[in-house]
Amino acid sequence: MTPARDTYSIDIAGIRRDLRLFEIKPGLRIAILNILGDTELVQNCARALAERLNAIAYDILVTAETKSIPLAYALSLETHKPYIILRKSYKPYMGEALQAETLSITTGQPQTLYLDEKDRDLVKGKSVIIMDDVISTGSTLQGMRLIMNRAGAHVVGEAAILTEGERAKWADIISLGHLPVFSD
To answer: Which residues make Cβ contacts (< 8 Å) with residue 27, sequence separation at least 6?
Structure first.
């Protein structure tokens, strides 16, 4: 039987969701947004983000796997812009991939992001929007920025469904809402 969990209710792009709270370290809990399989939420968020990104001139959307992939796909359909995924594990077919290490708040473990060799030419000299489902610490964004810089791309905007934690830290992020962190 699944244990009962506290939740945090939020309205995102006109849809209400009750996000389960999980302890990530003693005395600190975060609300988890998991868009995988939530087609209604993904589509509404993609439409809302597309409207907010409309004022920015960019060529490509960039995100890191895994949870934000459906959003990147839906946003690509809305904006008619291609997207690329920075992978979290290296595969031999990725060739001379660029990489950067990040620290995940949800796993508490370091992880490496990889830009497939085939995507290097796609982003070189292009204006890109880097995006994620939720921006908590900024570590994944930092890794994406580093890889895009190494690949010769120009990051012209950063977007997410939600930001989390210190709101002022994310003033430049194009987002649809903000999550608090929960201290016991």
So the answer is: 183, 184
